[in-house]
Amino acid sequence: MVTPVAVVGATGRLGGLVAAVVEELPEFELVASLSSKDGAHEAGPSVFGGAAIVVDVTVPALSPAIVDTALASGANVLVGTSGWSGDRLAKLRAGLEARPDQGVFVVPNFSIGSVLGTHLATIAAPWFPSVEIVETHHAGKIDSPSGTAVRTAELIADARREVGPVEAPHVDQRARGQQVASIPIHSLRLPSVKAVQDVLLSGPGETLTIRHDTNDDVAYVAGIRAALSAVGAMRGLTVGLGSVLGIG
User: Fold this and answer.
1) Span 82-95, mean pLDDT?
2) Which of 41, 119, 137, 186 is an active site residue?
3) Greater confidence, 13 or 36?
4) Which one of the listed residues 141, 170, 194, 212 is annotated catalytic?
5) What is the pTM (predicted TM-score) of this model?
6) Catalytic residue check, 137
7) How confident is the model at residue 40 (pLDDT cuts 50, 70, 90)?
């Protein structure tokens, strides 16, 4: 059986890649290809063309309304948009309790290497008192910190529950970055960079750096395929590609 899919944000870099992956997979059919400017967040559910899966790869300001409209259409939703913090996810999880037959899959990063890098950081985090994140993206990225960095910080904080928050001196100074779950995140936006994340962990006499570089969009293809294959059967809220890859 062929599963109909709608992509919102299909004119963007990631959205165009998602649409291309959908079209190359015989088990899926692209029934709607929408721009983030097409007003899908304000339109009725019919805008998705009867899709069983709606993929949202737009911008943080529009994403929650698009997810709500997609759920109202009866679809399951795959979210690749940044900006889904812990508070926003909690609200979505609560709303899904009234929709037991539907699911939303939020994927902060479709790169398998990025998922592995974050997982390695959570393993190391309890052993180092100081942890900071530096994320670097292309100059056109409109949000900061990145969704991947926010998710990494939240998972690190969760991994440190027994040992407590990280040591982060002078956080009252703006140059010390934005704290997420007690962890300073520093965002760089440079025209010659695609996506880089460095997690720096430091303790007495040593520093460990876990670095992931995305050099080409092909890095996202395997993760997009895995997410598309999994989202249709999901119920409730699932966060992170690692949940379907057996990582973490």
Assistant:
1) 91
2) 137
3) 13
4) 141
5) 0.90
6) yes
7) low
